[in-house]
Amino acid sequence: MPQKVIKTTVLILFVFLFFFIINQFFRENKRLLEERNQWQEKAFLYAEQIDMAKQGNGWPAAGGEEESLPGVSIREVKITALTFAPGRRDRLNYSISLTVANDSPGRTEPAVCLLYFVALTPGGEIAGTTPRVIHVPALASGGRKDFLLHGGLDLKPGEELVLYVDLPAGAAGPVKKRITLREPFN
To answer: How far apart are the C-alpha atoms of 38 and 138, rounded to whole Å?
Structure first.
């Protein structure tokens, strides 16, 4: 008789454990399906917002203020003056004219323009870099802003100076000017 009780108890425990495992499987499956549906809803919402932005509507303005669009682009970069400092053949003084414009139909937000001066040795290795930051104010539709930049760099004759101008939020992409400094440069 005790063996029958043990066999019956083990059988009942086995059946109970089987149904418990099946129940937990379906419960976890239901939870995962609900989580997947939530992520799908979020993905559809973000896709709609991206489609609105691509259609030119821009991102919705906060608080009903005027809409700001990232439409600042670099129009022109001119090297107006490059001279070595008097009595120093390793110090280059520069004057650069930079023009930015707003091509978008709305007012732009203030932006930051980045200038990188990269000095290259005659072998093509980087001898040094000098960054410069320019703050571009908000521009109305069709507005332009000219900047005249002055400064100096430590270079040696024969080195090559590469100037990178970039508006990170600009649609036109970076502008690159390349200037080579030779020995007879005045």
So the answer is: 39
Contact 102, 142 (CB under 8 A): yes
Cβ atoms 96, 77 nearer than 8 A: yes
- Helix, strand, or coil (residue 112): strand
The 10s digit of each residue's pLDDT in 174-186 is: 555 555 555 444 4
The reported pTM is: 0.52
Q: Residue 117 above 90 pLDDT?
A: no
Residue 73 in contact with residue 167, Cβ under 8 Å? yes
Distance CA(171)–CA(168), nearest Å, equals 8
DSSP 3-state assignment of 149?
strand
SS3 of residue 182 by DSSP: coil
